[in-house]
Amino acid sequence: MKVLYSWLKDFVEIDVPCEEIAKRLTMAGLEVEELETVGNDYLMDVSIPANRGDCHSILGIAREVSALFNVPLKLPASPDFKEIEEVIDVEVLSPELCPRYTLRFIKGVKVGPSPEWLKNRLELVGIRSINNVVDVTNYVMWMLGQPLHAFDADKISGRVIVRRAYNDEEIVTLDGETRKLTPNDLVIADERHSIAIAGVMGGEESEVSFFTKNVALESACFDHISVRGTSKSLGLRTEASTRFEKGVDIGITKFASDIAVKMILELCGGEVGKISEFYPVKYEPSKIRFRPERFNKRMGLNLKPEEMESVFTRLGFKVEKDTDVWYVTPISCRRDVSLEEDLYEEIVRIVGYDKIPSTLHERITGVVSPPSEWERRKILRRRLNSLGFSEVITSSFIPVQFSSCFGEFYQEPVENVRVINPLREEESVLRMLLSQALLTLSMNNVRWGYDDFSLFEIGKVFFKRGEEYVEKEHLGIVQSGRFIYSWDKEIVSDFFLVKGVLESLFKDELSFVPAYYSALHPGRSANIIYKGEIVGFVGELHPDMAKTLKLPRIYLAEIDIEKFPLEFFKTGLVIEPNRLPWLKRDIAVVVPEETHSIKVVEIIKEVFEGILEKYELFDLYKGPNIPEGMVNLGFSLNLRAEDRTLTQEEVEERVERLKIKLADIGGRLREW
Amino acid sequence: MSPMELELNSIRLEALREISSIENLETLRELEIKYLGRKGLINQLLKGLKDIPPEERPEVGRLINQFKLELSREIEAKRTLLEERERVKKLEEERLDVTLPGVRLPIGRLHPLTLIIERVEEIFKGLGFTVVEGFEIESDYYNFEALNIPWYHPARDSQDSFYITDKLLLRTQTSPVQIRVMEKTKPPFKIIAPGRVYRRDQPTARHSPVFHQIEGMAVDRDITFADLKGTLDAFAHALFGGDVSTRFRADYFPFTEPSGEFAISCIFCKGSGCNVCSYSGWIEILGCGMVHPKVLEVGGIDPEEYSGFAFGMGWDRLAMLTYGVNDIRFFLENHPEFLAQF
């Protein structure tokens, strides 16, 4: 809303620099976004909050300035003029959408260009001058906030009817567009067809032109919800609709019409007829209870009752005082003030928020620990960092082509969550797995020339299961290229590196079983099992897919971390270090090469149960000295009993048992 | 001299010559065996004693032993010398070009948004707040209706939403958490709710369709607007330093009354005016206010008995201010050169 300083001064007796006014308005919630000098005048661009429809006018801003600076408001007097008998009859068929409607017939106007001062003011606030009649309607709208519309009265046949549009009713609006309407839209019609879309835009047919002799001047109040709906569905916003949807003062309808009539008579000549008015239920603002003591208590202030009353008076609100409870009646344009708290805001807004002290609530609520998800996330982030992995945070939206990638993870049928009204394809599908986003990220990295990366993300995934929408927190890991490197050595990302990260993070409590994923390497992919349940997957991106996406070999892992309670990661009660020496024993096991190493580990664990502290696979060998079709696994075992020093005999006895167990799976112990 | 003595002397001279010409430990060991070994020359000489006349034996025996002793000493001396030489040589061979680069070890870094929220959480934890999280897929009710934003409310215009169904959408603000907390928790409580939000905006340097907010709320008996000011002042000073000034001005939000906007003095130009603060000297940080009585009622809290304040700020925006980032899209883009700086 553009406000001209000189125009503002027509309504308020003030002699403060415009800059100071701009500052106070901003602090009071009407932000002056720009203040420019035009000639020896100033132009403010004021941003009006959604609840302050009353401020879409010079008068409205003047009211604020009057209250803020405690200076008198100069309301224009009700104009008087002679009326002739002629009247256009009005019939309102939809009073629920049009609580007040007025129409005046003005006979014998001379339509022409506006005088310079009028043109100037309009152009400065951003309105194109059309002709004197239309300019007056716009001028009064800018001044008082009441949108007006002038029809060419000779184009109206019979009476004017305010009604809902018929289904598929069409009207050509002033901008030359044909608009199709529905019964949700309110129109102004004559006895033949609609001549304007109420509160939005007039019809082309009844437009005031230089040939117009007689004018019908409309000033009305339309339902804000209805105007907003129509404006939205037509994609048509006008100065009028903007004002109606934020609420126009129902108390000003006739006054605005009178002001406009007076100006038209002065600038365009002619004679005015009697007003046709529909206003069945007069609006009276309700009284609002106000408790001065409660106000001070809620705001943390210590204002005197007189100071509060002064603010209300300056705003034009009526105050009825009892001792502890007052009743305050706002003015009709302030429909945003309806609750006691709204009155509180009015006071602090006018006296200034800076008058409120800055305190801390004295009651000690104590420190509450954050939720376990928060803690878990923090622990995982720290550990991944210490493992050399960096955090990324990616968009929830993923490219459509990846929407079902790695979906085999879900054991039950699930679907992507999709947006029904995307703005662009890029924001239409939500990731159902973090790996989908990490794949996108990997492509970017490689395109930017970064082939070496070790990254993780902790974030939400979304899916639809039946009718239910699910959000879950996952951990995703992606690794590509070199992990540790220099000119003489390197450790390059591979399946076992990523697997090792998971084993470190989840304390060796996971197991891995081969699994099929269409987007993963068939021989290098596994499901991750925890407590008998599939909680994630790990694998190398399928080489065919890597080739298509122009990616090197990349390794991905993903885990549903909601399956791990915080206690899983936290330190419990400490176990004292065992100071008995270990007995180190290396063994070499030869088994058929298709045997999963985990099978051998299980046997070792079983045989050495109770004394196996640690084991490590340190060698895997095939070739000379090992029979064809067999593989040699070298394990180093750390053996220790909790309560005694182990004897060599005890260990050898277990090794003998190991030999028997190995024979069961076609293996044997290899002697050194 | 007896012929035996003469022979011994020539052997001795030969041995000493040999020792002095030896250049490595291996040859020295061979020489040691040759003379001092079990079948070495010295032992053979000692064995030969039985073939000489008994009256000469003690003298010759003494000479052989003297020779043996001398030889051992010479060999030992030579060995020490050779070993020392070898040690020096080995160290020389192990010499590195210390100007060659070291091994590249990965440093795990946190994302800037994480760094910010952990700091913010710490500050509010000190003020007695705890963290709560909500859903990103929300119902129209929690995102709008319950927050005093009915379907026809103009405030919806600025929060164009991504809809999943007629009634479900991607939340446009973290404020729905306010309602969910009130429904579950009896006052008093103080919470912050960081999270991801979505708006149907074209991405630009200042707007992203996916971004993040931090919501805050405190409800108790006798919570005042002054408490809101005090809390936010404390927060701003903790995050941006004690020398920033703060400013509250009136603003409008459907779910708070009175509502305000909280700004800090521009941390870049110290208030003298720059393009970050649009030459106003102030940077808007968040919107806030006293929880609207209707919202308290929706949450099942009696507005006569309790009062509360709430605030909401742009999490990405805080990170932009803290690190001088000019484009909000950098955060979700994750360019390696961007992330490597945190």
Structure write-up:
Chain A is of the alpha+beta class. Chain A folds into 5 domains: 2-69, Phenylalanyl-tRNA Synthetase, Chain B, domain 1, CATH 3.30.56; 90-278, Phenylalanyl-tRNA Synthetase, Chain B, domain 3; 289-326 and 337-352, Phenylalanyl-tRNA Synthetase, Chain B, domain 1; 372-569, BirA Bifunctional Protein, domain 2 (2-Layer Sandwich); 583-670, Ferrodoxin-fold anticodon-binding domain (Alpha-Beta Plaits, 2-Layer Sandwich), CATH 3.30.70.380. Helix content of chain A is 29%, strand content 26%. The mean pLDDT of chain A is 94. Chain B has 342 residues and is of the alpha+beta class. Chain B is built from 12 helices and 9 strands. In chain B, strands 1-4-5-9-8-7-6 form a 7-stranded mixed beta sheet. Chain B has a two-stranded antiparallel ribbon with strand order 2-3. In chain B, a hairpin with a 4-residue loop joins strand 6 (246-251) and strand 7 (256-265). In chain B, helix 2 (25-36) runs antiparallel to helix 4. The longest helix of chain B is centred in the N-terminal third of the chain and has 37 residues, at 57-93. Chain B is rod-shaped. Chain B starts with a helix and ends with a helix. Classes of the chains: A alpha+beta (672), B alpha+beta (342).
Compose a concise summary of this entry:
The complex is a heterodimer of chains A (672) and B (342). Chain A has 672 residues and is of the alpha+beta class.
Defining key terms:
heterodimer, A: 672 residues, alpha+beta, Phenylalanyl-tRNA Synthetase, Chain B, domain 1, Phenylalanyl-tRNA Synthetase, Chain B, domain 3, 5 domains, seven-stranded mixed sheet, five-stranded mixed sheet, 18 helices, 29% helix, B: 342 residues, BirA Bifunctional Protein, domain 2, 12 helices, 42% helix
Query: Distance N terminus to C terminus of chain A?
Result: 92 Å
Percent range for β-strand residues of chain B: 15-25%
- Extract low-pLDDT stretches of chain A: none
Give the CATH architecture of the largest domain in chain A: 2-Layer Sandwich
Largest interface: A-B, 91 and 84 residues
The biggest beta sheet of chain A reads: 7 strands, mixed
Strands ordered across the widest β-sheet of chain A: 19-20-21-27-26-25-24
Number of domains of chain B: 2
Number of strands of chain B: 9
**CATH homologous superfamily (4th level) name of the largest domain in chain B:** Bira Bifunctional Protein, Domain 2
Helix content of chain A: 25-40%
Output the helix-strand order of chain B: HHHHHEEHEHEEHEEEHEHHH
Enumerate the spans of chain B where pLDDT stays under 50 for 5 or more consecutive residues. Answer: none
The portion of residues assigned to helices of chain B is: 40-55%
CATH topology label of the largest domain in chain A = BirA Bifunctional Protein, domain 2
The dominant shape of chain B is rod-shaped
The amount of beta strand of chain A, in percent, is 25-35%
- What is the CATH architecture term of the largest domain in chain B? 2-Layer Sandwich
Count every beta strand of chain A, where a strand is a DSSP E run of 2 or more residues. Answer: 31
